[in-house]
Amino acid sequence: MSFSIGIVGLPNAGKSTLFKALTKKPVDIGPYPFTTIHPNVGIVQVPDERLEKIAETIKPEKVTPTIIEFIDIAGLVKGSHKGEGLGNQFLAQIRNCDAILEVVRVFEDPRVKNTTGKIDPASDIETIKIELELKDMESKEKENLLGKKPVIYLLNINGKTSYQAPGNEHLAINLKDEAEMFELSEAEKKELEMKSQLDRLILSCYNVLDLITFYTITGGKETRAWTMKKGLTAPDAGGVVHTDFKEKFIRAEVVNWQKLVEAGSWKEARERGWIQTVGRDYIVKDGDVIEFKI
Ligand SMILES: Nc1nc2c(ncn2[C@@H]2O[C@H](COP(=O)(O)OP(=O)(O)O)[C@@H](O)[C@H]2O)c(=O)[nH]1
Ligand SMILES: [Mg+2]
Q1: What is the mean pLDDT of residues 13-38?
Q2: Same domain, 12 and 137
Q3: Which of 46, 163, 283, 291 is surrounded by the most beta carbons within 10 Å?
Q4: Model confidence band, residue 31 (pLDDT cutoffs 50, 70, 90)
C-alpha cells in the first residue's frame, strides 16, 4: 500500500516536467522495478536519514525505503467540472489521491503558451480551487471531498517571486532547472551552484499526509521503512508489512530507532532493557523499529 499525490495545475504550468524529473530519480526497490508504472503514474522513494542510520547500525543485506506515488493529472482547465476538455475524467483521478500537489506557473517564457493570457499565480490558484469546489457540489458523498484534501503549492519560478501561496505547504522551484540537472554530473552542478529541491518537495508531500514511518529489520536481512497513518495499532502496522500479519499478530518487540542506533545492535538494545514487548492495542509511534511475532 502506498500513498499518492495528484499533480494538478493549468496547462503549461510544468506538471509533466515535474513528473518526469521526479520519476527520473533512480529507485531500486524490490517490488517496484520501474519508476513509471503507467505513463502518468510514477513511484518515488522517500528520502530518509533515519533509515540510513539504522542501516549503518544493522548492516543488512538490503535497505528498502518507503515510497510515494505521483500521478500526472493532465487537463484541468476552467470548466473542467462540467467535463470541459478531458477535465471530468481527471477530476475523478484526483478523488483517488491522498493529497494534491498544485503546480502554479510563475515563470515567464514567451515560447511557452499561457492559456490564460497572463502570468497570474493568484488567479490560477483561484481557478483550480473553484473547479474543485464546483465538482464537490455535484458530489453526493460528502466524505472525500476534493476541496478537503491537503494541498501543496509548487510555484514554478525562473527568478525570484514575491507571491505568497496560501496555506502552510509551499515551495518555489525552477522545474526547468530540475529537469536539466539530470543531465549534469555532481561536479557540474556544484560549479553552476545548482542544487535539486526535489527531495525537499517529496518530504513536504509526505509531511502533509500526516503519516508516520516505522521500520523493520527482519533479523538483519532487510532494513526497511514503511508508511502508515498516525494513530494506528501494532497489528495495523503488521498488516502494512504483510496482509497475514494483522490477523496472526500475537505481540511485537519495539524500540525507538535512535535507541537502537545508540545501542549499536538489537542484542545490545535488549540487554539495556530498551526493547519493549507490546500487544494488540499498542499505538505505533513515528520512528519505531518493530519485530512482529506471529
Ligand atoms: N522557461 C521555462 N519553461 C518551463 C518551465 N517549466 C516547464 N517549462 C516548459 O513549459 C512547457 C510546458 O511544460 P509541461 O511540463 O508540459 O506543462 P503541463 O502542461 O503542466 O504538463 C514545456 O515546454 C516545458 O519545457 C520553467 O520553469 N521555465
Ligand atoms: Mg502535462
Answers
A1: 76
A2: yes
A3: 46
A4: low
CATH number at residue 129: 3.40.50.300
CATH of the domain at 271: 3.10.20.30
Ligand 1 proximal residues by C-beta, below 6 Å: 9, 11-17, 107, 109, 112, 156, 158, 174-176
Span 91-138, pLDDT tens digits:
778 888 999 999 999 999 989 988 888 899 999 999 999 888 888 887
Residue 88's pLDDT band, with cuts at 50, 70 and 90, is: low
Protein residue with least CA distance to atom 4, ligand 1: 176
Question: Residues 118, 119, 123, 128: what is their CA dihedral angle, to the nearest 10 degrees?
Answer: 100
Nearest by Cα to 47 from 228, 152, 183, 202? 202
Nearest ligand (C-alpha, residue 114): 1
Ligand 1 atom with minimal separation from the 13 CA = 20
pTM of structure: 0.89
Which tens digits make up the pLDDT trace of 160-216?
877 888 877 889 999 999 998 988 898 999 999 999 999 999 999 988 999 999 999
CA angle 172, 207, 253 (to 5 degrees): 155
Q: Are residues 94 and 154 in the same domain?
A: yes
User: Do 176 and 111 fall within a single domain?
Assistant: yes
Distance 76 CA to ligand 1 centre (A): 15
8 Å CB contact between 23 and 70: yes
Alpha-carbon 263 to chain mean position:
31
The residue range of the domain holding 200 is 3-49+67-208
In angstroms, what is the span from residue 17 Cα to ligand 1's centroid?
Answer: 6
Question: How many structural domains comprise the chain?
Answer: 2
C-alpha cell at 148: 478537503
